[in-house]
Every structure is written in C-alpha cells, then in structure tokens.
Write a structure and sequence with these properties.
mainly alpha, three-stranded antiparallel β-sheet, three-stranded mixed β-sheet, 17 strands, 9% strand
Amino acid sequence: MKKILYSTLCIAALFTATSCNDYLDAESPSVVDADFVFSNDVTTRAALTGGYFDWRTVANGQVFGDGNFYALDACGSDIERHPEGYNNQLPRHIPESFYENGTAMSSYYPDSYLNYFKDDDKNAYNMLFGVVGKANAVITAMENSKNFESIEKATTPTALSQMYGEAIALKATVYRELIKYYGDVPYIDKFGETAKNLSPRDSIYDVLIAKLEKVENLMFPIGSIPGIEAANKSYFSKTYVQGLIGRLCLEAGGYQTRRDDIKPVSGAGTALTIETKGQAHDGATYGRRSDWKDLYTKAKGAYSRLLANPGRAIFHPTDPRGAKDGKGRVLGNPYQYFFQQMHDDDLAYADESIYEYPQQQGNDSDARSYAHGRPCTGSNNQYPNKAYGQARINPAYYYGMFDPNDMRRDVAVTVTGSVGAKGVEQILAFTPGAQAKGGGPSLNKWDENRQKTVWIAKQRNSGINGPYMRISEIYLGYAEVCAALGDDATAKQYLVSIRERSFPAGKANTDAFITKCGSMLDAVIEERGFEFAGEGDRRFTLIRTGMLADRIQKIKELTKSMMDGLAKDGYYRFDNGNVISSYIWTKNVDAKTQYGYRLTAQAPDNSDPVLFPGWRGQNDAWESYGLDYKTDKPLTNVAIKGLFTPVTEDDATMKGQGYTKVSWGADLLKNKTEYYDNLFKGFEPGNYDKAPIYLIALPPNTVGAGYTNGYGFGK
C-alpha cells in the first residue's frame, strides 16, 4: 500500500508516447540529450519513474486487476473457478476452459471483454508495449551516454548501474507478461527500432535472460538501493532480478502451445528442437525445448544466489506476532502473517515480498479486494464496500485436496462473505452469483475488513498492493528445478521449509505427502498449488510443467465422485477425512461480546463454530467508520456447524440452540451443470491431451498491421 510520489520533472514526460505504435514506428532513437539526463542520479531516477508508473497502471488495470489475469488465471485452473453462471459470462468462461478444449474457437475471444474492439490504446497488448517503449527509451539513452562504459564495467554497484538494471528488469518483466499471454510477439531491442514481424519467443527469452544476468551484479539487493527507503519494495532490485531469471528460465524451458509456422530459434539464432506432448490442434503443438535442462540449471544458479543473500526478503518459519494478540485472538500462523501485513499501513510492505507493485489508497482503481478477495454485497460507503469476488475455489479442491491440518486453507478459502450495508457476514451459497450473493467458496487472502485503515468512500480504492514476487516462490522454484534435475535432497529441504511452517508441529507429514504425489517434482508442484491457492498462479504452472491434462482429469473425477455421493447418500467423505453434507447449520452471534473481537485469525481448534473455520468475521470497529448497528450487541458473525463433519444432534436440538438448517451440498448438487458439466467443458475421457488453447488472439489492429494469429485460432 505504498504511496508513490511521482516526480513532476518534465524529463519523465519526454519519454511519453500515446500508444504501442509510437514505439513500433518511431524514427528517432532518442528524444532527449542522454548525457544530460543520465549524468546524475536525480534526473535518471526521474526518467525511470515514468516507466514504473505505466507498469503499475497496466499491471493493475490490464494484466492483474481487470484484465488478462482476472479473465483467465484467477478462475481457470483445477483450484480456481468463476462465480457466475457459465452462459452468463461466455466471453470469460469459454477462454477459461481453454476454449472448451479447442472446440469453441470461433465463438468468443477474451478480447471482447478486454476492450480489444473498443479502444486500441487501452488493451493489455498495446499498453504492455507502451511500457516496453518507456524501458527502451531509458535503456537506449543510457547506453548512448558518455558515462555508460563506467556504468557497465563497474566492479561494484553504483546508483546509476542500479537504475540501468531496473530498466532492463522492467523490460524483461513486461515481455514475460506478453509471452505468457500472447506467445510469439515482436521484439524491440532499442528505442526507435521498428518491429518487422513476430519474433520466436525462445529467442526473446534467451536474450532477456542474458541481459538480466549481465546486470545482476550491477544492482543492489532489496533493502539497500541508494536513495530508496530500505523497507520499500516497489523497485526492482538485484534480489528481484535473480528471482526473475529463475522465473523466466522455468517458463522458457517449460511446455507451451506453439504455432507451427514460427520455427523455434535460440537467442544465438540457432534452430531448436521441441519435445512435443499430446495431440496437435489446428496448426498448434504443445512442447518444450529439448535443451530445457540447460535453462533449469541457470534457474538453479540464480535461485541459489538469491537464497545466499535475500536482502530484506524474510522467510518467516514462525509467526513474528507470537501466539496471541492483545485481544486474545489466536495467531501463530506465519503464512497468515504475510497477508495481514498486506492489509496494514499504506506505507508498508510485507516482509516476505521481493517486489510489490504499489497501490495508493483512495486514488487507484485496484483489484484487491474487489476482484481478488473476500466477496461483499453492497456499493460505496458501506462496511466494507462492494467486492465482486471473481476468484472462487473449486469445492472438490477445498474439501478433498487441502489437508485439514494445513493452516493455509482458511487463509486461502472462505465460505462466508460480508453484507456491506449491515457490517455482518453471511454464508456464500453454491447458487451461481457474484459478490456475497452466491458463487460458492471464495479466495480469502484479501479482505477490507482486515485493513488497519479502511477506505469507505468508494469501492476499488482499498490501496492493497499487488504481490508480484515473494520469497516462498523462490523456495518452491528452487525446489522445482532441483527435483527436475535429480537433486531430490535439496528439493526436499526447501519443500520441508514451506510445509512445516504451514502445519502445526508434527503434522506436515512431508514423506507421506511425497509418496502420495508420486515423485518429488509432483510434490513440489502440488505444494505450490496450496501456497498460491486462489492467486492465479496455478493455471500457467500446470501449462508450463505439462501437468495440465492430468490435473483437469483429477479434479473432474473428484468432483463427479463428490456429486455422486451427495446424490446417493446426502454426503460425501473425501480421502482426507473431510465430509461435505447436503445441509449445514448456522446462526448469527455477537462475537465481540463473547470474545472481545469480531475479526478472527487462526482457529485454536475445530470445536468452536464461531472461530472455525478461521480468518473471517467482521471488522472490530465498523462503528468508528459511521455504521450504526442500532444495538450495542450486533449479531455480526456466523457460527457454522457441519461444514466438514456431519452434525450428530437431531434437528430439534439444533433449533433449540438457535441454529437454522441451510442448504449446502444440496445446492451444489442442484447446480451440477455449473460445478461439474461446465468444469473444463469439452474435456472428456480419452480427449484430455490436445494442445491447450490458452493464449490470447492478437487484437485486430495488430493483425491488420501484418501480423497473423495462430495457436489454434487460425490466421
């Protein structure tokens, strides 16, 4: 929630252009006197600030907030799903299901939802290229300046070499997003160059990785960048560059859907061979580079260098807050602590973050918690404001995959939302719908109830930052490359670190988990799913690891077993011991009188229906923001019985305790079409392994400029 004060120096404005085409067609390689701008730290930082500003804008609005990530990643994996009815949101749901396994290619594009046909300058593709242009303007000007040789050959980092590295990192970050969503794209090396055609993505990856390796030692670790506050994590650091090298190597060496008319070429211009997997589809194949181990080896080196000196990226194996807070709330969950930090002061960053793109409370149209948080009915000036809740969780994953002892489960997933007009919580019914009106279990990691200072005046103004890279990703990325390269001992060391901090002492059972998964590599990938559940990481992780078809089949089979059990017996017992029942029992309670607080943290055990599941409730002090409950004992919290264990008392006893019987699994069964039939629609037994159609078609103005579509879209 960092408030950035962007410089008003006219230097930054000199690097501004109106659209992607300004960068594709610019004739002049420079627009300012490079020796003037890059002669000192102040003017250089001012020039770079414009690039950061545009990256923040596109990251939140077109990539992660209401754009590509929102429409595809946050609701398109075996973990994540959509809240509304399939037929009500076809432009989202058809691409989310990989175009119904490639059978619905001509019907819908996510483009129609992402402004592709409305405004050529405000879609993700063009705006990302706009940021490439800003980065190239800085890079080209620095490389043309008289002092560049001293910057490039410095034996120790300097303020100027750090900023040169930041510009390279900015460019590499943006190209990472372009390749992830669009595949092969134009590569523009210097400001003023004109893009002639689509460049093979493998060559782009190689070139960017080499550039990052070149600047790595010209930069400072996070927390020690000259002129930047030590706690500020909204700037690219050496730590981030090392993590980005690892990230790009994993993706470059992973499986991707490729078009047959663009031949794979390395950064050195040599032809590459591709190991294919599954069936081809309409001129598209699914495969990875045969030299993928070389890339994984590079990733292993970058991750190990980062872990040797992580700077101020702090991995907390225990909760720094202790066992309880001053009100008696149970804490003791270090995973929970990371997300609580993201709700704290507007000037704060989470300890485990390596990079967060900043959002200013009250001024930005941000996605957390509106799109990617705990749902809430209502509008502006409510308690809290409306939250749509795009990222929902597949019920079979919530019940059947999460270990009941995993302390990440309640942080990741909630079964209650908020009624903003009343400042109370309510059950998220399985009936399709947005906000807290339905849609089923939801992502729970961001919730305006939990902010230290809440912005009431307007929705989408929470100011919660975007967490783009954190240290747990590095642990799991390192474990992944080690496992893939045969170093299971090191992989296990880092897998254990992640698991043991997520479970009560003695409950992680890592050896049994590895055995259940079938291999160390599979265990690491599954663990990554639990660590980043609901955050949209899962979809592309399964694509690049080649595990997509297997996980789709497993979640469909598990969902069918759950539905069959509910239909036959009125309940279904999963292998982990959890039971989903046709009905649960709920009642509203005055938690503040009973406990001294409304907003819960870690559940001490599963015996208290108000505190379990944990990490829910309501803000402790909505009254201080103007809410008049009209009583000093408002019934703000929901007590729940029967969520994971069948209720043994008879109906009369439950009613005598003040509980109401609520349709739960019965509603899930009523909506089987949404939760099973439309779950990865088009994927059926014997038909899971076609090349997945996950990339986004190029926008019409780009195709009209001479580029063509592919990847199963035709041309």
